[in-house]
Amino acid sequence: MAEVFCQHGLAQIGTGEASPVVKLGNTKPKRDYIFVEDSAAGFVALLEGVLEGDAVEYFNLCTGDEMSVSDLVDLMGELMGVEVTIESDPSRFRKIDRLQQLGDPTKLKTRRNWTPQWTARRAVATIMRDLGYQVVDSSTK
Fold first, then answer.
1. Rounded to the nearest 5°, which phi and psi values hold at 87?
2. Distance (Å, whole) CA 46 – CA 128
3. What is the CATH number of the domain that holds 68?
4. In this structure, are strands 21-24 and 85-88 parallel, antiparallel, or unpaired?
5. Contact 107, 62 (CB under 8 A)
6. Is 120 exposed, middle or buried (0-12, 13-18, 19+ CB in 10 A)?
7. pLDDT tens digits for the chain (141 residues)?
8. Number of domains observed in the structure of the chain
9. Which range marks the domain in which residue 64 is found?
10. Exposure on the CB side of residue 83, measured as CA atoms within 13 A
């Protein structure tokens, strides 16, 4: 989901303008974004500990950190070296939009020794590079 959002946001940010305007819906909701490589590693950690006949257990596969949509757009602008202005369009708001969706990875860490390895900054920079955008922040390699 974050990669699709990045593509949409980057299409608006990567116009070559020094101060692009990004038009979005509600930018206040905070989400616990997780990079796909961390998700895959988390699934492997979960499966490595499963034995046939074990009772079903539930784990949160998450980072335990949250970021708002506006924070994510600001991060993309920062990584591209541009100052982004966000315009919130109420017609793009969802009818139901939870303001916070934050997971707790504690059980996965203690039971399977798994923790996410990717920061949001590094993950977004990687997605941007993979999509062909130039990232000006060399600390994210």
1. -110, 125
2. 29
3. 3.40.50.720
4. parallel
5. no
6. buried
7. 444 455 556 666 666 666 778 888 888 899 999 999 999 999 999 988 788 888 888 999 999 999 998 999 899 889 988 888 888 888 888 888 788 899 999 999 999 999 999 999 999 999 989 988 888 876 766
8. 1
9. 2-140
10. 1
